[in-house]
Design goal:
With 199 residues, the protein is an alpha+beta fold. It folds into two domains: 1-35; 39-198, Lipocalin. The protein has helices spanning 3-35, 38-43, 79-82, and strands spanning 45-49, 56-59, 68-69, 85-88, 93-97, 102-104, 114-116, 125-131, 135-139, 150-151, 154-155, 166-175, 180-186, 192-198. The strands form three sheets. The chain has an eight-stranded antiparallel beta barrel with strand order 1-4-5-8-9-12-13-14. Strands 6-7 form a two-stranded antiparallel ribbon. A hairpin with an 8-residue loop joins strand 2 and strand 3.
Length: 199
Amino acid sequence: MKKKELLKLLMLMFAAINIGLVSSCSDDGDMEMENEDPTLAALAGSWTIANEEAALAVGPAVGSADWWFLPGDEVATRSCLLDDVWTFSTDGTLSIDMGGSTWVETWQGNDPEGCASPVAPHNGGNFTFEATTTSITVNGAGAFIGLAKAFNGGELSDGTSSEPASRTYTILEMSETPKRMKLGIPIAGEGNWTFILEQ
């Protein structure tokens, strides 16, 4: 075989190998996209409590506001709570940033309740979480979404409950445009808190 023909053959072989490598990388990227958890992808990013009436509510049924809801005229008053940030990452980490102040209630030592410095362990930090298509579980002392007092089966404001190691919230609604979610958590008896968050 002549040198020119040999070189041409080698060049064709290298070209075929390169095409195969590019195709393989592309396929791997597509597979990663296909395997990405849709709930984690939907949660990813920074969330705040919606700046609107009834973004916080509690009642006897899931999603109800029969007992109390955030009144429209108190939205501005509680702005120190509504600017708290929950950041979810696709690697299962959760960061809570309350800035310099948040809404602190009497059970946390603030009487009357109002904007004040966050009280440990509910003063933000880094935690972990798991999510399914129907629920979000946050892990770690001080980890919560919405209001610090609400946990599965009770409220810390009763003065007898201890800080839970984790809390599980039901995803009642989730939308992409606009990016919003409504979460629920059952407390004592028939009580249920509802929180609306947005990006």
